[in-house]
Amino acid sequence: MRQFYPNHQKGRVSLQDVCAIILAAGDGKRMKSKSSKVLCEVLFKPMLKWVLDSCFASGIETVCTVVSDHAKDVLAIVPENCAIAVQKERRGTGHAVMMAREFLESNVDGDVLLLYGDTPFVDEETIRAAYEVHRAGGNAVTVVTADLEQPRGYGRILRQDGKFSAIVEEKDATEEQRAIREINSGIYWFRTAFLLEALNRITCDNAAGEYYITDTVAIAKGMGQPVGVYRSPRADVVLGANDRKGLHQLNETARMRVLEKLMDLGVDIPFTDGVVISPDAVIGADTRILPGTVIKGKTRIGEGCEIGPNTELNNCRIGEGVRVHSSLLEDSTVGDGARIGPFAHLRPGTTLQAGVKVGNFVEVKNSVVGEKTSIAHLTYIGDSDVGAGVNFGCGVVTANYDGAKKHRTVVGDGAFICCNTNLIAPVTLGEGCITGAGTTVTDDVPPYALAIGRQRQENKENWAKEKGKYRKKQ
Ligand code: UD1
Ligand code: CA
After folding, report:
1. Residue 32 assigned to a binding site
2. At what angle do helices 124-137 and 47-57 cross, to 10 degrees?
3. Angle 59-10-147 from CA coordinates, rounded to 5°
4. 197: part of which helix (H) or strand (E)?
5. Angstrom distance (rounded) from CA 319 to CA 335
6. What local confidence, expressed as pLDDT, does residue 469 receive?
7. Which of 25, 69, 147, 425 is deepest in the core (most CB within 10 A)?
8. Residues in Cβ contact with 172 at an 8 Å cutoff, skipping those fewer than 6 apart
9. Does ligand 1 have an atom closer than 6 angstroms to the CB of 167?
10. 117 belongs to an annotated ligand binding site
11. Each residue of 123-166: pLDDT tens digit?
12. What are the start and end residues of every segment in region (Pyrophosphorylase) (predicted)?
């Protein structure tokens, strides 16, 4: 099976002395989105975040992102150590790079990598391999290209006598040029001093009336400077998305890659139907993922678990041998051997220790639940510190919110909370205590005590008949 994240250790060139620019100022017009295109998600991760992660993972430390002036949401995912350049009007990729001129001037020695925020699969291997070609050729510009079966929408690579000569955008291309299948990925290495010079020469004399960064190739040629290509053997690395259909294709490609990588590592995914797993998730061998399971963010799952069917985990840490069936778990930690579901909801801030059971229609929020505690049915535990070996009967509710403030509930080890108990927080129940079914606990319960807070039952003899309420079945 294809290795997607190769470990390219041998003969590594250092990328610490180079810098990078990422273009992310485009709008979401073709996506028909109110927010920025680069925030459209592939496997629940914004495309720009994929690009930023690959850039930093390859060892480049000096990075500038070009953003539009109204894109607060874009800024929110750009790390603090990344410089920002603002492009007020969207006048093309060349114009966007011009906005980073100051950044380039302060890093003028050496080379700069240019990436687009809508090309999420760029990876360290491609960045490095292209850089080696760039250095070896002493190139002014090196373009990463690939051969696509469906080159529609991409800039085409023009060659003269087999030698790279220019990039033509689809809008400007002749029929003959459109038949070319080698495309521009939008991943480039530039000699920085050359790029600064070339930026002065780019014009907007084309079908779109935009400043194209791709014109730098012909500009270099005209200046007698060497240009080169790194023709990627893996076409999917260069895929970009301009509209929702393109985004779906990227999602499908990425989804299968992640699943294949996990299978290589010993994760059991017998059917891939509806299984979507974040590229940042880590899953142990012999864990079985069943259909309809969505695993988001930086979730970590140990070995020998069974997750699904129909389950979503978001940024969770799951131990070993855990079983989760038809449930939603968010920002939660689950200890070894725990059993969750069906139809349970762990909300953020929940920690279940080893061997805990959380069953049907149970919600737990911002709480710690001790080892082997059982919360089997129809229960809400919020803002609570629960000990080990506690048993919650059916329908227990912590009343943690008084309308203004949230309060904590503390339950000691081995307590036995009978059905339909209300625990009115703040309240503390001691170790080994018992509550009577239907009790509303408003005061602390000492260890080993029985708390009963309900009206004693009275039977009124023959009441139903005398009041005419008794209806004999016909
Ligand atoms: C671009 C390339 C094309 C290449 C394709 C690869 C140019 C002229 N064309 O076309 O050759 O095959 O990418 O995917 O470069 N952006 C800005 N400001 C702008 C315009 C764009 O920041 O004014 C950013 C966008 O956010 C995007 C990237 O630049 O991340 C590329 O822009 P886009 O309009 O998608 O270019 P393509 O038409 O895909
Ligand atoms: Ca694009």
Report:
1. no
2. 60
3. 75
4. helix 192-199
5. 5
6. 87
7. 25
8. 206, 207
9. yes
10. yes
11. 999 999 999 999 999 999 999 999 999 999 999 999 999 999 99
12. 1-244
The rounded Å distance from CA 241 to ligand 2 centre is 6
Say which residue the tokens 């059982």 belong to.
Answer: 374
DSSP assigned state of 206: S
Q: Is 337 in the pocket of ligand 1 (CB under 6 A)?
A: no
Q: What is the rounded CA–CA span in Å between residue 100 and residue 97?
A: 5
Structural domains of the chain sorted by starting position, each given as residue range(s) with its CATH number in brackets: 16-229 (3.90.550.10), 242-449 (2.160.10.10)
Evaluate: CB of 103 within 6 angstroms of ligand 1. no
- Please give the Cα distance from 301 to 283 (Å, whole number): 5
* Residue linked to tokens 């610490």: 16
- The token pair at 445 is 């319960």
Task: Report the predicted TM-score, pTM, of the whole model to 2 decimal places.
Answer: 0.90
Query: Distances in Å between the alpha carbon of 96 and those of 25, 66, 75, 211, 442?
Result: 7, 7, 16, 9, 63
Tell me which DSSP letter residue 184 carries.
E
For residue 356, pLDDT over 60 is answered with yes
Catalytic annotation, residues: 377
Provide the residue count of the chain.
474
CA of residue 93 to ligand 1 center, whole Å: 6
Tokens standing for 440?
């509303």
33-44, pLDDT tens digit by residue?
A: 888 999 999 999
Task: Tell whether 200 is in a known binding site.
Answer: no
